[in-house]
């Protein structure tokens, strides 16, 4: 069964140059990108409208010109902010891009502390913040030449990334382990894994709490702090996201999609789907197919 992995293992860029830029429009491309994490650094830069981003359970609203920095292995999500449309870019780069020869002192001094949890950085940086203003020229340059990054602008991209890393270190702080929310929230990843692998089966709060080694009450409290919603609401939303993807990408019957995604009551599935997406599953499928047909690029059109 195809689903969105919590731990994203996709290679971004190439093996020799692990860097890439993605363009996203919410809700035109998709309504949300659920909780996940990966081994890359990620910058989420809003160019217009609004985008809702959560990092370690904290929600941030990005407006035009604002920036989110997601450190490696931080659990985060991207979604629609109310009914607003939002356009943004993801700039993703693997830590190994900064690694030189063996025992590289710069890598050990400036990169490893972010990976080991010894150093952190504020996530959200409004357009008028000093960090944002310092790195925006680098970001805009990478966006402008994103299609040329693997052919003629590799050196420029790497120079921008090293300058970005410099500013990240200049604005970083040492981690106080006794107050780091990741230490409490990290165990909740087991519950998210549990949903990822067993979403098509009956899942109870008790079973999810057991995966994390928590009591039900403590689990429910931490989960709401971590995600901003209850575990049951997260489970339903996860299943609905998968259903929406299957509706737009496959020709499976609606009743089969509901079953595949863990909905045993088809009336409830339709009501929940309409509440989230504003359309019935059938209407959503028709709109998605129409949108894909109209937005299909011609042979001479470059990708976004």
Automatic annotation (TrEMBL):
<feature type="region of interest" description="Disordered">
    <location>
        <begin position="284"/>
        <end position="304"/>
    </location>
</feature>
<dbReference type="InterPro" id="IPR018062">
    <property type="entry name" value="HTH_AraC-typ_CS"/>
</dbReference>
<keyword id="KW-0805">Transcription regulation</keyword>
<dbReference type="Pfam" id="PF02311">
    <property type="entry name" value="AraC_binding"/>
</dbReference>
<dbReference type="InterPro" id="IPR003313">
    <property type="entry name" value="AraC-bd"/>
</dbReference>
<dbReference type="InterPro" id="IPR009057">
    <property type="entry name" value="Homeodomain-like_sf"/>
</dbReference>
<keyword id="KW-0804">Transcription</keyword>
<feature type="compositionally biased region" description="Polar residues">
    <location>
        <begin position="290"/>
        <end position="304"/>
    </location>
</feature>
<feature type="domain" description="HTH araC/xylS-type">
    <location>
        <begin position="189"/>
        <end position="287"/>
    </location>
</feature>
<dbReference type="InterPro" id="IPR014710">
    <property type="entry name" value="RmlC-like_jellyroll"/>
</dbReference>
<protein>
    <submittedName>
        <fullName>Right origin-binding protein</fullName>
    </submittedName>
</protein>
<keyword id="KW-0238">DNA-binding</keyword>
<dbReference type="GO" id="GO:0043565">
    <property type="term" value="F:sequence-specific DNA binding"/>
</dbReference>
<dbReference type="Pfam" id="PF12833">
    <property type="entry name" value="HTH_18"/>
</dbReference>
<dbReference type="GO" id="GO:0003700">
    <property type="term" value="F:DNA-binding transcription factor activity"/>
</dbReference>
<dbReference type="InterPro" id="IPR037923">
    <property type="entry name" value="HTH-like"/>
</dbReference>
<dbReference type="InterPro" id="IPR018060">
    <property type="entry name" value="HTH_AraC"/>
</dbReference>
<dbReference type="InterPro" id="IPR020449">
    <property type="entry name" value="Tscrpt_reg_AraC-type_HTH"/>
</dbReference>
């Amino acid at each position: 069964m195809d689903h969105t992995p919590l731990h994203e293992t996709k290679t971004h860029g190439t093996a020799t140059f692990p860097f890439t830029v993605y363009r996203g429009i919410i809700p035109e491309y998709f309504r949300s990108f659920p909780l996940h994490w990966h081994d890359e650094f990620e910058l989420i830069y809003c160019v217009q409208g609004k985008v809702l981003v959560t990092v370690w359970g904290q929600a941030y609203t990005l407006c035009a010109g604002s920036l989110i920095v997601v450190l490696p292995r931080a659990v985060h999500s991207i979604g629609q902010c109310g009914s607003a449309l939002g356009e943004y870019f993801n700039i993703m780069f693997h830590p190994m891009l900064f690694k030189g020869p063996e025992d590289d002192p710069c890598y050990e001094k400036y990169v490893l502390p972010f990976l080991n949890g010894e150093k952190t950085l504020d996530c959200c940086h409004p357009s008028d913040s000093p960090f944002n203003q310092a790195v925006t020229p680098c970001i805009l340059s990478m966006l402008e030449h994103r299609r040329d990054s693997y052919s003629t602008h590799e050196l420029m991209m790497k120079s921008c990334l090293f300058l970005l890393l410099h500013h990240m270190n200049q604005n970083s702080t040492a981690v106080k382990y006794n107050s780091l929310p990741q230490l409490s929230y990290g165990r909740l990843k087991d519950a998210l894994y549990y949903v990822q692998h067993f979403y098509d089966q009956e899942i109870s709060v008790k079973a999810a709490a057991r995966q994390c080694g928590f009591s039900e009450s403590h689990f429910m409290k931490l989960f709401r702090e971590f995600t901003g919603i209850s575990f049951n609401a997260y489970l339903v939303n996860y299943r609905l996201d998968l259903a929406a993807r299957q509706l737009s990408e496959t020709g499976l019957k609606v009743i089969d999609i509901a079953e595949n995604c863990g909905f045993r009551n088809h009336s409830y599935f339709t009501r929940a789907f309409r509440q989230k997406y504003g359309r019935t599953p059938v209407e959503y499928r028709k709109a998605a197919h129409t949108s894909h047909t109209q937005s299909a690029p011609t042979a001479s059109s470059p990708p976004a």
